[in-house]
Design a protein that fits this description.
This protein is an alpha/beta fold and about 270 residues long. It contains seven helices and twelve strands. It has helices at about 10-20, 20-35, 40-55, 120-125, 165-175, 205-215, 245-265; strands at about 65-70, 70-75, 80-85, 85, 90, 100, 135-140, 150, 155-160, 180-185, 220-225, 270. The strands form four sheets. Strands 8-9-7-10-11-12 form a six-stranded mixed sheet, covered by helices on one side. A two-stranded antiparallel ribbon has the order 1-2. It is elongated, with a radius of gyration of 35 Å. Mean pLDDT is about 75; it is low at about 1-10 and about 55-90.
Length: about 270
């Protein structure tokens, strides 16, 4: 059948044309039975729809289209009534939106739906979830002998390089957090207008990376690729005397910084210089 049967042999098409409308629908059901058995839900719905059409004795010309394309099955019928189901300006059926078409219910054996009312069911099918393993812990580190509170972030401390950093990360790992990002506080006497300390192989950031990798080889370490922690101007880039940012020269130093961090053992270098 040109409209319904997915077989292009001329003999099959001719045979379909010679059958009654009822027999043609029956042919579709038998022809597709093996293909539909155990197939996807849309294909099964197509089979159920055709069975309903057959049981309701819907004429073949009333079927405008039946398309089985991948996982989509669409059946349109011209017999659908499109007039509004209203009485005196109100919906004739409680809870039904005005303008809903009035149709003859399909004789489906079941109407499977994904009922999400149960918390157990929702827990079993939800795709997005959050756990400690998804978090990245920021490590603020300095060269001092003890941790220092950060006034602008109550409850957060700059950790003294060494044992304090290791202990802090060990505690986080015990809670399931195994990713960190390092933010060093460079001593003022090491800051310059060109920020060469950023790619010092023995700089604070590079030493902290090696310290953590020695203690926890499987910890995931992120770094901050930017010049502002090392720039005496406090800028992310090298600035000329007239205030113009030297972009190309800055990029050169950012690249050197990223390489030095990777060589120290960083897993991910994160460009943030703007």
């Amino acid at each position: 059948c040109h409209h319904l049967v997915y077989c292009h042999h001329s003999s099959c098409q001719e045979w379909c044309k010679q059958q009654s409308e009822r027999q043609s629908i029956g042919f579709l059901l038998s022809f597709q039975s093996k293909r539909l058995r155990g197939q996807s839900a849309p294909q099964s719905r197509l089979r159920d729809t055709m069975q309903a059409l057959l049981s309701n004795q819907v004429a073949l010309p009333q079927i405008q289209a039946a398309s089985l394309n991948g996982r989509k099955a669409v059946v349109a019928r011209s017999a659908v009534t499109t007039e509004k189901a209203v009485t005196n300006g109100k919906a004739s059926r409680p809870g039904v939106p005005e303008g809903t078409p009035v149709v003859t219910p399909l004789g489906l054996s079941s109407r499977p739906r994904r009922n999400r009312r149960s918390e157990t069911f929702r827990s079993g099918i939800r795709e997005n979830w959050l756990s400690p393993a998804h978090f990245i812990l920021p490590i603020f580190v300095h060269e001092g002998d003890k941790n220092e509170p950060i006034p602008s972030m109550p409850g957060i401390y700059r950790l003294a390089y060494g044992k304090n950093v290791v202990d802090h990360v060990a505690e986080a790992r015990s809670l399931g957090v195994n990713q960190v990002v390092i933010f060093p506080k460079t001593p003022d006497h090491l800051k310059t207008s060109t920020a060469e300390e950023a790619f010092n192989t023995n700089g604070l950031s590079q030493r902290t990376i090696r310290l953590l990798k020695d203690a926890f080889p499987d910890v995931e370490i992120y770094t901050d690729v930017a010049l502002d922690p090392y720039n005496s101007d406090g800028h992310d880039g090298i600035v000329r005397d007239d205030g113009v940012i030297m972009n190309d020269e800055t990029v050169e130093y950012l690249c050197r910084q990223a390489v030095s961090q990777a060589e120290a053992g960083a897993d991910c270098v994160s460009p943030s210089g703007v």
